[in-house]
Predict the 3D structure of the following.
Amino acid sequence: MAEENVVFVGKKPTMNYVLAVVTQFNSGADLVILKARGRAISKAVDVAEIVRNRFVPTLKYGNVNIGTESLQGEKGDTNVSSIEIELRKE
Amino acid sequence: MAEENVVFVGKKPTMNYVLAVVTQFNSGADLVILKARGRAISKAVDVAEIVRNRFVPTLKYGNVNIGTESLQGEKGDTNVSSIEIELRKE
């Protein structure tokens, strides 16, 4: 079975996450899953495209899942969109 | 053949695009494609989730395609990530 490695994309610079994904592929992973919420979704897509175009040309996208997560905040619950992008090295 | 309707998500408020999508489904469309680039990608995901959770419960996601587009700017070409989200009413 392929190893599953998850990278959560947040507020750090884009290249930090690119490096994290590339490192996992270089460690032998076949599948890396990028997860992000809210405004970080755009950054997760950037990370995926930079990895594919510059570092791992054999990369293919697997499922791209979109959903909503409920966050508990001080002023009550808020809903935030989320994305999961499967990256597969062939 | 299903009608193809495209909604480009940009800088307007999220609910403008939600309304555009809902209007197309109410006009008889089976398939609406949301397209966005750069930072608007997060907004496109929000639009999709709001339409699905609040307005069109029978909505299913079709393909979600990720890519890179080259934009010609004053300071030369820049690459920007893009997304296409297929929304299908069943």
About this structure: Helices of chain A lie at 14-26, 40-55. Strands of chain A lie at 4-9, 31-37, 59-73, 76-89.
